[in-house]
UniProtKB/TrEMBL annotation:
<dbReference type="Pfam" id="PF08592">
    <property type="entry name" value="Anthrone_oxy"/>
</dbReference>
<keyword id="KW-0472">Membrane</keyword>
<keyword id="KW-0812">Transmembrane</keyword>
<protein>
    <submittedName>
        <fullName>Uncharacterized membrane protein</fullName>
    </submittedName>
</protein>
<dbReference type="InterPro" id="IPR013901">
    <property type="entry name" value="Anthrone_oxy"/>
</dbReference>
<feature type="transmembrane region" description="Helical">
    <location>
        <begin position="86"/>
        <end position="107"/>
    </location>
</feature>
<feature type="transmembrane region" description="Helical">
    <location>
        <begin position="57"/>
        <end position="79"/>
    </location>
</feature>
<keyword id="KW-1133">Transmembrane helix</keyword>
<feature type="transmembrane region" description="Helical">
    <location>
        <begin position="138"/>
        <end position="159"/>
    </location>
</feature>
Length: 162
């Protein structure tokens, strides 16, 4: 495979991991803390709205595209088609796919779906919200860390490719 194409794909994976790390960091550091400080029904309603609006083409391109690039680059590296930095591409792809993508699908999305079904003003909603805030944020911290490690791995790969 052409070195320039591998470099370009690696750069895109790096940027994607950085965008996602920043996105998740912002939620852990700011958004969820703010939602926890407002009245429960308002916090639930705001998060329900966020969970709808986040499903857009720009988010999908960054979230899914980075995962696909991580898989592609990892496979290319394992097949010996990457001139240098292959180990770091495999590491970045694994951290992103397992720690960011799979954690999202297995943990955060089901919690978002459960939250979408509750009445924000109900006792059930308030009970769910308390649990949601702690568990969702815990898994979000992991997504943030995994995205940062993927970002660092992709950066090292780029440095070795340069």
């Amino acid at each position: 495979m052409a070195d320039g194409l591998v470099f370009a794909l690696s750069l895109l994976a790096t940027l994607g991991a950085g965008v996602m790390a920043g996105f998740f960091f912002t939620f852990s550091n700011t958004v969820m803390q703010a939602l926890a400080r407002i009245p429960v029904p308002a916090g639930i309603q705001a998060m329900q709205a966020i969970n709808v609006i986040v499903l857009n083409p720009v988010f999908f391109a960054a979230f899914f595209g980075t995962g696909l690039l991580g898989i592609l680059l990892g496979v290319l590296a394992l097949l010996g088609l990457v001139p240098s930095g292959g180990v770091w591409l495999v590491a970045g792809g694994l951290f992103y796919v397992v720690g960011t993508f799979l954690v999202t699908v297995v943990f955060n999305v089901p919690m978002n779906e459960a939250l979408a079904k509750v009445d924000p003003a109900s006792t059930q909603g308030a009970d769910l919200w308390r649990d949601y805030l702690s568990r969702w944020v815990m898994w979000n911290h992991l997504r943030t860390l995994a995205s940062l490690v993927a970002l660092a791995s992709f950066v090292v790969a780029l440095m070795q490719q340069a």
